[in-house]
Amino acid sequence: MNSRKSLADFRHDALSVTASTNSECLERARAGDAGNLWVTADRQTGGRGRRGRPWVSERGNLYASLLLIDPAPMDRLGSLPLAVAIGVHQAVRGVLPLAAEPVEVKWPNDILIGRKKTCGILIEGEALADGRYALVIGIGINIAVKPENPLYPVTYLHEHGSTVSPEELFAHLYASMAEALAVWNSGKGVREVTARWREVACGIGEKITVNLPDRSISGHFAGIDDNGLLMLDIGGKILPIAAGDVFFRS
Fold first, then answer.
1. Separation of alpha carbons 178 and 176, rounded Å
2. What is the pLDDT of residue 100?
3. Nearest to 119 by CA among 55, 68, 58, 176
4. CB 241 within 8 A of CB 229
5. What's this model's pTM, rounded to 2 decimal places?
6. Which of these ranges, 14-18, 150-154, 165-169, has the smallest mean pLDDT?
7. Cα-Cα-Cα-Cα dihedral sign, residues 193, 197, 199, 204
8. Which of 162, 136, 186 has its CA nearest to residue 36?
9. Ordered structural domains, the chain, with CATH
10. CB of 128 within 8 A of CB of 136?
11. Is Cell division there in the keyword field (predicted)?
């Protein structure tokens, strides 16, 4: 069975308003949806980011979620966020002027323009009652408005000379994500994915602080391993980190 995806494998349902495109996808998965389904919304009333943080969801930005069912064996899912990041990066870069500031990926999958966050990605999974596994990739991209977010410097596409609409950006994302998932190939393409991720990564070799749930650790960003773990160099000792918030230090 060929697990590589093509554009023809995906469907799209565009909504005006929903609480959360991620929640909508999970509800459809519980109801038996076969997956490979994109759900977009003009506005969300209950958008959320990582660790339960609210995600401001005004009209003018892109709010999209992709439902996948049994996308890979569980031990291969760790590299999926990297594939998602390169797909989103390609879509964002494709709608900006050539002279725009650098578009980079901050580990694991924030998209930055000129070191300011313009996109957040939230990946959620759930074991379904029928034995299948649902995985939802939620993507919020600031196009016309940006939130007042004290955690990070933030920006939006129109601030960098792009005139793209949410619909146009989604068309780019629809295509670039299909390509990225084809390269990832249910985890079989992890080496190609990590190589592409490193090419667009932000801050490798720089001093960073990683905020973990219980503490903060500082060191040099030594890159990622082939499973997507962040490698933090602390005085010559490499500490692998699976999850955390990264802050660059001057």
1. 5
2. 94
3. 55
4. yes
5. 0.90
6. 150-154
7. negative
8. 136
9. 11-200 (3.30.930.10), 206-248 (2.30.30.100)
10. no
11. no
